[in-house]
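Summary of Year 1 activities. Much of the first year was spent building the evaluation harness for sequence design. The harness presents a backbone, in tokenized form, and records the residue chosen at every position. We chose the following record to illustrate the format because it has been used consistently in internal testing since the harness was completed.
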């Protein structure tokens, strides 16, 4: 139950959404759920200038379909947008012809169309009956990215002629005529054929990709009847003789390898050939399914009493599981490798929204994500230097190098909270896993280097430490002083740094000595952390978003925001928005959730009441933090309403055309586990505690959680809760 995402009508208007929503992946390659065949009018190689813009307000280029094959870590350099993920050659291509008619969802006549993603085993399927000249042919496509062999993608096509014998022609193809955000990142393309199709491309960063694709027609290695190629496409053709009511099965196996594979030794061709040896026509799905089952077994959430929430929660978990990479050289981009918006860049989304899911259900992946930050520390130090500061300053938009990739100055220069968010995420990881080795080595180094940045970034004004000229999570107020979210995060990260430094110093650890931290430095970190301004008004129990927030312009939302189906930002000029009291997303509200033990109920209630009215939720990261704060203050009705809005972003709102809003997916997991079920840690971090807040109609929620390497099963019901250790 509740494992299938289905679509019954092909509609060019929402086709791109399904391509994004049906994205498959295995921790190495990610592939959008586009059709196997060409789609009339959907070109893939358009060249255009994608300019830096506010992605929330940007009009996506209209196209019915955008193929997407992404291997995280393979990137190119765009002249304006910096390092960006590269959309690789589309190797799933299969065209079917009857006489001169090519099967095409835009122009062909067909009935009973269904496509569905089975999230349990990550298999994508499409079936329909193709009506050609008085004859009906049943067509069924299936495919998956193998979890067992990460370089392997398996496709199956079953054809059955219902009325008479027919001759069809099948074209297997690889297409390298693919641009990413309108830019061609391939400096070299080589297309070949002998016993199979092959494509080799080199990116403008000199990374190499090799693809091999082989077709088996009904059990036999039937030879192709011909080959053809253009500058960007290589094709092999097969004759398919379909006897009436006699199903024919065609299998297509593809191998994709790259120069970032761990077994790459300077020769993509020999790597490809050695990996292609794994291909034979007896490959089964058993191990692939078993591996997916193992992941679900730990990460699934079972919800009794609300099918809608159940399906959307699984949808979120599915994407969290398929998008996370096995490598610690990459993270998860804002669109989860399901589209090109945000160019494959990594944001604070990783540490704040995604990490809890991995920390508690797939801790090794959490560690990899944090190690990615460690592996890009050098870039972060260079960023700090470039801005004239000490230590390490993590980029607002990160990619492979750790250098800032954001081409909009407002965010890159001012949205500095990400550097403290990373320490917050690492601390959460440490508390839940108890990974001291990491704490006293990589984490300590990041903490010290980022603390060095903060003490050089603060200004002393009126005898107070301040952070001037910053943008908080609310990106509609770009240049503010003492943003409360930022300042509180910085205080937290400096405090924790001091705690770890104390242990490291007392034990005279190598890492401590290597970092050459002086006593004066420690004193300064202590001073800044305790004296940095935090705008909590104790009397009125209210946190000000930033200095002088109340003086910004009031907005008459009813008058300005005339069509609520579109982001508010569309109805106001950027200039006016930037001086108005309209929030893009949760800011103080985010703080209330992330530090829920630090603020009392009155503060929470006052703040959410005030800020919610001003929040436009133009960012997909906003709703879920409202849901989480409402859960915390036991307003289950509002918590559920906001959770529901979050579910409407990708799945129910058909918002995945340009990729998956993966931060929201991680947020949904938190909304259920930390929100509705109220999961938290005891003050010594040794026990799980539950403070549930289930809406009336939800009868039961069950999930599993790792804490300090032990696995627990948690059951939350209206009248009772249960935490049982099930570590094997
Ligand atoms: C949000 C940021 C977020 C980014 C990527 C923006 O629209 O305002 O908070 O990090 O999207 O998801």
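For this record, the design step produced the sequence shown next.
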């Amino acid at each position: 139950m509740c494992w299938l995402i289905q679509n019954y009508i092909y509609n060019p208007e929402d086709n791109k959404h399904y391509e994004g929503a049906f994205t498959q992946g295995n921790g190495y390659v990610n592939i959008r759920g586009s059709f196997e065949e060409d789609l009339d009018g959907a070109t893939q190689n358009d060249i255009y200038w994608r300019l830096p813009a506010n992605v929330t307000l940007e009009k996506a280029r209209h196209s019915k379909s955008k193929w997407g094959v992404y291997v995280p870590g393979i990137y190119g350099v765009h002249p304006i947008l910096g390092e960006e993920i590269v959309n690789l050659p589309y190797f799933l291509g299969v065209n079917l012809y009857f006489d001169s008619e090519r099967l095409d969802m835009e122009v062909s006549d067909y009935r009973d169309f269904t496509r569905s993603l089975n999230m349990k085993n990550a298999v994508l399927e499409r079936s329909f009956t193709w009506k050609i000249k008085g004859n009906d042919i049943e067509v069924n496509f299936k495919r998956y990215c193998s979890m067992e062999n990460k370089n392997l993608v398996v496709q199956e096509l079953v054809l059955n002629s219902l009325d008479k014998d027919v001759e069809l022609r099948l074209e297997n193809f690889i297409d390298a005529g693919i641009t990413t955000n309108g830019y061609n990142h391939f400096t070299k393309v080589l297309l070949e054929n002998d016993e199979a199709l092959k494509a080799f491309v080199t990116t403008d960063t000199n990374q190499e990709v090799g693809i091999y694709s082989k077709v088996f027609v009904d059990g036999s290695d039937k030879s192709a009847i011909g080959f053809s190629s253009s500058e960007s496409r290589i094709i092999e053709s097969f004759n398919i003789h379909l006897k009436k009511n006699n199903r024919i099965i065609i299998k297509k196996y593809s191998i994709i390898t790259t120069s970032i594979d761990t077994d790459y030794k300077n020769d993509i061709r020999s790597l490809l050939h050695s990996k292609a040896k794994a291909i034979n026509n007896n490959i089964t799905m058993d191990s692939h399914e078993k591996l997916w089952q193992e992941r679900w077994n730990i990460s699934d959430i079972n919800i009794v009493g609300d099918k809608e929430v159940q399906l959307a929660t699984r949808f979120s978990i599915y994407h969290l599981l398929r998008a996370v990479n096995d490598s610690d050289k990459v993270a998860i981009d804002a669109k989860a490798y399901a589209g090109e918006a945000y160019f494959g860049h990594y944001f604070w989304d990783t540490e704040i929204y995604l990490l809890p899911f991995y920390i508690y259900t797939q801790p090794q992946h959490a560690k990899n994500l944090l190690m990615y930050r460690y592996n890009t520390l050098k870039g972060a130090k260079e960023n700090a230097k470039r801005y004239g500061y000490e230590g390490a300053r993590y980029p607002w938009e990160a990619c492979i190098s750790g250098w800032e990739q954001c081409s909009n100055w407002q965010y890159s220069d001012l949205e500095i909270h990400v550097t403290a968010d990373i320490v917050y995420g690492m601390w959460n990881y440490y508390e839940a896993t108890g990974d001291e080795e990491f704490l006293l080595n990589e984490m300590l180094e990041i903490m010290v280097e980022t603390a060095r940045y903060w003490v050089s970034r603060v200004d002393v004004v009126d005898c107070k430490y301040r952070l001037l000229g910053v943008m908080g999570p609310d990106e509609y107020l770009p240049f503010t002083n003492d943003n409360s979210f930022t300042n509180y995060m910085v205080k937290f990260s400096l405090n924790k740094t001091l705690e770890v430094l104390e242990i490291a110093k007392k034990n005279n650890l190598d890492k401590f000595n290597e970092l050459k931290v002086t006593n004066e430095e420690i004193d300064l970190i202590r001073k800044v952390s305790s004296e940095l301004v935090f705008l909590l008004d104790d009397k009125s129990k209210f946190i000000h978003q930033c200095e002088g927030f109340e003086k910004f312009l009031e907005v008459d939302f009813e008058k300005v925001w005339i069509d609520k189906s579109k982001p508010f930002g569309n109805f106001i000029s950027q200039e006016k928005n930037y001086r108005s009291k309209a929030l893009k997303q949760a800011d103080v509200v985010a703080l209330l959730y992330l530090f829920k033990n630090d603020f009392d109920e009155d503060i929470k209630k006052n703040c959410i009441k005030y800020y919610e009215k001003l929040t436009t939720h133009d960012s997909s990261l906003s709703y879920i933090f409202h849901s989480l704060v409402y859960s915390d203050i036991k307003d289950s009705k509002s918590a559920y309403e906001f959770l529901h809005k979050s579910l409407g972003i990708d799945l129910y709102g058909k918002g995945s055309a340009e990729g998956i809003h993966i931060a929201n997916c991680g947020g949904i997991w938190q909304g259920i586990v930390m929100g509705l079920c109220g999961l938290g840690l005891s003050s010594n971090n040794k026990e799980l505690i539950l403070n549930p807040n289930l809406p009336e109609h939800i009868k039961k929620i069950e999930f599993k959680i790792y804490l300090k390497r032990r696995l627990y099963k948690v059951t939350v019901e209206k009248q009772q809760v249960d935490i049982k250790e099930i570590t094997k």
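The domain at 343-534 is CATH 1.50.10.10 (Glycosyltransferase). Quantitative recovery figures across the full test set are reported in Table 2.
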